[in-house]
Each structure stands twice: as C-alpha cells, then as structure tokens.
Amino acid sequence: MGPGLHEPVARPLAALLRRAVLDHATSEPRRHYPARLHIGVPGGSQRVLALEPASADHSLRTDVAAAMLSRAPTGTEPVVWLTRSGDLDLQDLDAQWLAAALAACGEADRPLTMVVVNRHGWRDPRSGTAREWKRLRRR
Fold it and tell me: What backbone torsions phi and psi does residue 121 show, to the nearest 5 degrees?
C-alpha cells in the first residue's frame, strides 16, 4: 500500500475531513474563487493562506507550508487541505502544494495527511481515496 489515505479511513479523521468540506461549502458562495491552503484542524484552529493564480516556486511554497505547519496547534497531528473550485481530479496546483507539504512535513519529521476539498467532497492527491456527497448537511 502506498502513501496517503486508504479505505477504511478512521472515523475521527473521516469526520474531520467531512467538516472541512461542510465548512467550505457553507462559507464560499461563489462559483469561482481563489484556492486556499489550510493547515490545522478542520472546524478548529487552523492557518489559511489565499493562493495567487501563479503560485511561487517550490522553495517558497515549502517555506510557506513549513511556517504554517510550525504554527499548527500542538497535541494533534495537523491536516493540510487545499480548497478550490472545480472537480477533484488532480490538478497542477494540487501537485505543487502536495510536493511542498511533503517537503515541509519531512523537514519537521511529521506525518502528512493532505486532501483537496471542493463543495462536494475531498480527495487524497497521493492515493486517490475520496469521498463525495450530493447534499451535505450539518449533523
């Protein structure tokens, strides 16, 4: 089995990722919007960075991810998620920030849990494991 999330996804993590999707779906009314990088706990303490269409080079992305990771809440393993419009198929932006997050987590000797989130679901860019909902509601 390769890196990334695989089925069955642990219930606590599945609930956090569902929360990331729900928060994104309820907070972003526009059809097209800038992508955002989040590091922390969905529904809890997190750092958020709006991404420019032409993101910086790999070194700068890695430095940004490392700085955000260093400010993540202690006591829990932070989640990295990229919110963006469009479908959940792998895009260049996903791969660029995945590489930066991998490097930052490697430098910090921390495991990486990263997903791409849109209004309907999430997808792990490494393994392809995904969850989607037609109508997501608060529980």
Answer: 175, -170
